[in-house]
Amino acid sequence: MRMDLAGRVVLVTGAASGIGLACAQAFLAEGAQVGMVDRNAPPELDGDVVAVRADVADERSVADAVAAVAQRFGRLDVVVGCAGISGPVGRPLAETSAAEVAAVLAVNVTGQILLVKHAQPWLAEDAAVVLLGSDSAFTAAPGMVPYCASKGAVVALTRALAVELPGVRVNCVCPSVVDTPMARGDLGDVLDDPDFPVQAPGDVARQVLFLASPASRPVNGQAVLADFGLSARSAFPA
Ligand SMILES: NC(=O)c1ccc[n+]([C@@H]2O[C@H](COP(=O)([O-])OP(=O)(O)OC[C@H]3O[C@@H](n4cnc5c(N)ncnc54)[C@H](O)[C@@H]3O)[C@@H](O)[C@H]2O)c1
Which segments of the protein form a coiled coil according to its record (predicted)? Predict the structure, then answer.
């Protein structure tokens, strides 16, 4: 299938690690021009690429970073919001502070809204926005209340943004566990259990590229839940 992403201008947040880095690499491999935005310095990649340091939870910082990428390439065709944090995963709710909840929402929710707000003036006709949700918007394990709440909000704001921005497609991907530094830090060796289905960052990047590509032209306001079908199973004992 042709992705038709060559020459497209793509801004990726969270591009220094994990899924965001895999997305930046995959867009570059398609011949896109890529702006890598992260609070940390990303690795150097070959291709037409610019890296900008920013904190997506800080409005001035994210506005400046978006403007820097857009001015460098002249417009934005695709915006991918990958920057995210997991927060106090594994901690019981009784030991979770308001400040910890606010920190997760600031990056995972407000950061995505600010990204799109400041990208909007630069978005080309037929632009696409792809946000990183999570299967945690739909299913939960104990000790994940702030993260799950933040990812549920990403699904809702995806729909709201699709309505808010006429002519711009806005979708989110909602993967199950992906082998990245975030997941390694939270889950450790469980990722190596052969009975536990784990995605690679490149698996998610391909989902993002499809939603960013004209190949998904009619898909808008959707959350693509990619979890090996785990959430589809009924409790019926069969
Ligand atoms: N790894 C998983 O299992 C998984 C599953 C579903 C969804 N996700 C989501 O995918 C996205 C990427 O996660 P990942 O697993 O690649 O994690 P990661 O920790 O490997 O990468 C996240 C990147 O975001 C950056 N970042 C964090 N806060 C930032 C901020 N305030 N401003 C700018 N950059 C910031 C980090 O520096 C890092 O480079 C996140 O939104 C995460 O919630 C991850």
Answer: none
Assigned domain for 231 exists: no
- Asked if residue 234 is part of any domain, the answer here is no
Q: Which atom of ligand 1 is nearest to the CA of 55?
A: 32
Residues with CB under 6 A from ligand 1: 13-14, 16-20, 38-40, 54-57, 82-85, 107, 111, 132, 134, 175, 177-178, 180-183
Ligand 1 centroid to 83 CA: how many Å? 5
Tokens of 170: 């806005």
- Token pair of 107, please? 């990056």
pLDDT above 90: residue 238:
no
pLDDT tier at 205 (50, 70, 90 boundaries)? very high
State which ligand 1 atom lies nearest to the alpha carbon of 175: 6
> Ligand 1: which of 36, 37, 38 to mutate, judged by most atoms within 8 Å of the beta carbon?
38
199 lies in some domain: yes
Total of domains in the chain:
1
- Which atom of ligand 1 has the smallest separation from the CA of 185? 19
Query: Could you give the residue numbers annotated as active site?
Result: 147
- Tens-place pLDDT, residues 159-189: 999 999 999 999 999 999 999 999 999 999 9
Q: Closest Cα to residue 27, out of 5, 46, 44?
A: 5
> Domain for residue 233, yes or no?
no
Cβ-based neighbours of 168, under 8 Å, separated by 6 or more: 120, 123, 127, 128, 129, 161, 162
- Per-residue confidence at 116, pLDDT binned at 50, 70, 90? very high
Mean pLDDT (the chain) is 97
What would the pLDDT profile of 74-84 be if each residue is shown by its tens digit? 999 999 999 99
